[in-house]
Amino acid sequence: MTPQAPVNIQRPRSDDRALWDVAFAVYGYPALLIAHRLKVFSLLGDGARTLPDICEKLNIQRRPAEAILTAATALGFLSLQEERYSLTARSEDYLLEKSPSYFGFFWDMMIDNSEVFSYSNLERAVLTNSPQAYGGGDIYKSHEEQAELARRFTRGMHSISMTLATAWPNTMNLDDYRIMLDIGGGSGAHSIGAALKWPNLHALILDLEPICEVAQEFITRHNLQDRIRTHVADMWNDPFPKADLHFYSNIYHDWPRERGRFLTEKSFKNLEPGGRIIIHDVLYNDEKTGPFAPAAYSMLMMGWTEGESYSALELSKMLQDVGFQDIQAYSAFGYYSIVTGIKY
Q1: What dihedral do alpha carbons 114, 117, 119, 121 form, nearest 10°?
Q2: Are 69 and 60 in contact (CB under 8 A)?
Q3: C-beta neighbour count of 259 within 10 angstroms
Q4: 87 lies in the same domain as 157
Q5: Is 88 in the same domain as 210?
Q6: Same domain, 85 and 143
Q7: Which of 42, 75, 97 is the last residue of a domain?
Q8: d(CA 244, CA 267)
Q9: Which residues pair with 230 in a beta bridge?
Q10: Which structural domain range is residue 218 located in?
Q11: Domain limit, last residue, from 35, 70, 97
């Protein structure tokens, strides 16, 4: 019997790191959330420490401690020199509670709702096209019905908004505007950032009552009570108060497209000639081939809301369709961009 020739195995055209990156991300990135919950960053905020010292302070053993510390170091949140771990500038800016750009409240919200980003719940969200947060359903209806839930969510969103609020005002000139209506404004971070940039600008934060209560805390903290007020209202059903600037941050991606079109048209009808709309969000490129961040944000929305990420081109067309002109889109800070237009 003639022996069979061996079958060659074709070598893949690229290495397998991208596949491993998916698996490693599932296990590696939660190390940062665990480190945060264990208060590693606040511990190191008092000074550099050795691994044995950290183990003693946190009451955990060497193997898990070294795993989370190495992950945090590899991702640029810690440095290791002469066997002592210390915070990097990134962690000092974003992971110490005393910092005005503290991100930790948002991480707390992720941890407290970790079931949302479990594989099973995200798969269920994809298969049913329905959010899974708070056991499923409309999170904003839950916020209307449960005031404390709304307050915790608002503080978590403030955690990511304040840094953004100090950045986007540097990308445009709003000297000619007098009243900014911060629609769905949450904690008022963006009103605060705008008011600090433009001393002649006043702001109204439009949101539900328990959320406006949280916003008032932050307004008072920044001594801006004379220039920023809250306005309790439902953006879908109540009239907008008079303003010459309408601002939306992290709003459009929360809702289906028809809701975005509704808000765009409502703003156009309420603004006087010369009025401006600003949409501040994480956006796809125009071809919707990336970047990865807005794609991941859409998956985040699958877990939490009925919304999705948009491209600047899609939002620009939405503005154009209702009558806005001089539409511009550009990067603002980090993953965030701005789309803006004027009513003539």
Answers
A1: 90
A2: no
A3: 16
A4: no
A5: no
A6: no
A7: 97
A8: 10
A9: 205
A10: 106-342
A11: 97
Q: Read off the CATH number of the domain in which 155 is found.
A: 3.40.50.150
Torsion sign over Cα 91, 92, 98, 101: negative
The pLDDT tens digits of the residues spanning 162-175 come to 999 999 999 999 99
Domain for residue 206, yes or no?
A: yes
- 228 touches 182 (CB < 8 A): no
Q: How many CB atoms lie within 10 A of CB 66?
A: 13
Shared-domain flag, residues 234 and 255: yes
Q: Does residue 146 register a pLDDT over 70? A: no
Contacts of 237 (CB under 8 A, 6+ apart): none
Q: What letter does residue 146 receive in the DSSP assignment? A: -
Q: Compute the distance between CA of residue 299 and CA of residue 294 in angstroms, rounded to an integer.
A: 9
Verdict on whether the full-model pTM lies above 0.85: yes
Residues 6+ apart with CB under 8 A from 64: none
> Quick one: 322 and 249 in the same domain?
yes
Q: Which amino acid is present at 31?
A: A
Tell me the pLDDT tens digit for each residue of 24-46: 999 999 999 999 999 999 999 99
Radius of gyration, CA atoms only, the chain: 23
Domain total for the chain? 2
